[in-house]
Amino acid sequence: MPPKTLKIAVKTPLYRVFDYLPVDQDADRPAIGCRIRVPFGRRRTVGLVWEDAGVPAIATSKLKRIDAVIDTAPIVPADVMALLHFASQYYQHAPGEVVAAALPRALRNGEPLWPIQQSWRIIAALTAAERLALERQAPQQFVFYQRLEAEGAIEHSDLDDAAKRAAKALANKGCTELVALRQKPTTIPEMVLASAPALSDEQQAALTTTFAADGRYAATLLDGVTGSGKTEVYLRAIERTLNAGRDALVLVPEIGLTPQLVARFEARFGFAPVALHSGLSDAERLSSYRRAAAGCARIVIGTRSAVFCPLPALGLIVVDEEHDSSLKQQDGFRYSARDLAVVRAQQTDIPILLGSATPSLESLQNAAAGRYQHSRLTVRAGHAKPPAVGLIDTSAHGMTDGVSGPLRNAIDVHLGRGGQVLLHINRRGFAPTVLCRNCGHVLDCDRCDARLTLHAAAQRLWCHHCDADQPLPAACPVCQGELQALGSGSERIERALEKWYPGETIVRIDSDSTRRRGSLEAALAKATSGAARLLVGTQMLAKGHHFPELSLVGILNADQGLFGSEFRTAERLAQTLVQVAGRAGREDRAGEVLIQTDFPTHPLLATLLQDGYAGFAATTLDERRAAGWPPFAHLALLRAEGRDRDTVWKFLNATRATLSDAVGVAIYGPVKALMERRAGRYRAQLLLHATSRPPLRKVLTDLRPRLDELVQRQRVRWALDVDPIDLA
């Protein structure tokens, strides 16, 4: 009888698992979800037991044995393993890299799930005579012995030198021993509810709908205008879940939303939820994972990868800002956390709540088709009213540093009334273009088909695509003429406001100003408290934040998305405009939103102003249906890049040739990417289009092993992007 093998997921781009023999054929076999150490090529690495033993891919005589078993019990529970299997198959991605996305770095490197602490304990109790003798002859040993009697165990690292000597002396006498104890968290936070506002009829209906299936699977789209109280519905749903003895998982698209939600949840429930996001250190991420896995978290709030977080009693999933593109991983393992959250809810048979003021068209269509329940919140909470929205025709008004005269006047008015002002510009840096006034030469990136952005504070030019940077030259490198910065970014707007309003506190929030640890939280605290009355921000300020004093929002570069090159451009622009506008007038102050544009009669702007986001979405869904684009079609994109353009195209043409037998799937391309050269590599792509999902999944399943066989792959990087949200 051939020996039983283990199928191990190892972090490698290869779309397969690897067969290994156990350490010893008679030893207990590690369970699925346990980590082991294995020889892999010329190195040793950590792998995860992926599935039950099957027929080895090669002769057992050629198989290697695993080096060691790290875990005696699975660190990835069965429900998360089921999600990882689904994700690997659906996104056609290497199992080892899927596992790597789910585990904190420390666990990927072999750290124990539960920390091991060396502790002293009593193994032989002293008789009355022995106690008396010890007290007389070795008082320090007797004191330590008494401590052990009282405490049961004492961690070795907590002892001073004298206590360590006493412990060792007692061990030599056979009284004590030093043992390795796994420190699994055991403290479960107690819920102490704070008072809550009364629910509106719409909020109560949404809560009832969420649990209409008595706690079993149901997906509910919570479609609520900005400021309508979606978070209060989340809180009530989580309260109900906790009262039932279950845990809740909350996904948010951005790190910036996490501290705000954590604070609000802590104020309501009396304990701090566990946070999981990339802003944490490796040690903090491991600590959060441990608390969740031990069942001691109750609530986990996190970004994308938190969808894989182990929660033994998971009873509810909430996805906030479900439309947000940040919920889709855009490189490596390209998964949608929102979509996997729905799958996890289905697999574990629990409700999921998807909230947004600007739902994705996919979610709206799922609701229309009956796959999701649809709950609407149509009015703002309390006495808040929707902001007044107006357009400023920038072709008819002069602009200084990106701000028009009418917008400047409005800023003066709102500041004079004690209000707070937010200027939104979805471009960081000082200026997106630097050119020579004499010869017209534009300073471009040497590695990308892109212009260099000026960052004036650092006096450097920066490519926002490959991250290359260089000093700003004193003169044109071609003719030594004078250089001029064209266009505006968030840094330029901040400088202009400093010049115009020298007595005001100004906060700029973008990925440049919030790089340092804690800087984002500090900036948001100033904005929320009203200490900063002038806010400048990029996309980071467009969603989820609540600024009580904010009365005016100015959107500076709306035209950037009016004439995009792909079918989702209009949807993204509409979502951004509505989300940013929704920051204004959320409490007692009346809100005003002014949108600067060269195209005030553009149909998208006209539809948004007249019919709101719901009207825009209905019109756009009709257009998508007629054109055969998602959500009425299913896409996959094969992206390829390499140092040599011809090699990339040969690879994609060879791939297309292997798809000649595809049934029910249209193949478009290859075509070059919108930015063909990035970071010194040429990029092109193939688009696969199907009107139903099964034919596309079959083609992708057949295609994946063929890609590994193509000779050209050795000089080409490629990636399959299933359900891409960006075709650029």
Structural overview:
With 728 residues, this protein is α/β, with parallel strands linked by helices. Helices cover 32% and strands 23% of the residues. Helix 7 (201-210) packs across helix 8 (230-243). The radius of gyration is 30 Å and the shape is globular.
Strand proportion, as a percent range, falls in 15-25%
Q: Helical percent range?
A: 25-40%
Mean of all residue-level pLDDT scores: 90
Give the overall silhouette: globular
Low-confidence stretches: none
Q: What radius of gyration results from the CA coordinates? A: 30 Å
Biggest β-sheet strands, sense, barrel: 7 strands, parallel
**Helix/strand-derived class?**
alpha/beta
Number of strands: 32
Separate helix tally: 19
Q: Please list the strands of the largest sheet in the order they lie side by side.
A: 11-12-10-13-14-9-15
Cα-to-Cα separation, first versus last residue:
54 Å
What's the SSE blueprint?
Elements: E1 6-10, E2 18-20, E3 35-40, E4 43-51, E5 68-69, H1 78-90, H2 95-102, H3 105-108, E6 116-122, H4 128-137, H5 139-151, E7 154-155, H6 161-172, E8 176-182, H7 201-210, E9 218-224, H8 230-243, E10 247-251, H9 257-269, E11 274-276, H10 282-293, E12 299-302, E13 314-320, H11 337-348, E14 351-356, H12 361-368, E15 373-377, E16 388-393, E17 399-400, E18 403-404, H13 405-416, E19 420-424, E20 433-436, E21 453-455, E22 460-462, E23 469-471, E24 483-486, H14 490-500, E25 506-509, H15 519-529, E26 534-537, E27 550-555, H16 569-581, E28 592-597, H17 603-627, E29 634-642, H18 645-658, E30 666-678, E31 681-690, H19 693-709, E32 717-722
Parallel strand pairs: 9-14, 9-15, 10-12, 10-13, 11-12, 13-14, 16-28, 19-26, 19-27, 25-26, 27-28
Antiparallel strand pairs: 1-2, 1-4, 3-4, 3-5, 6-7, 6-8, 17-18, 20-24, 21-22, 22-23, 29-31, 29-32, 30-31
Helix pairs in contact: 1-2, 1-11, 4-5, 5-6, 7-8, 16-17
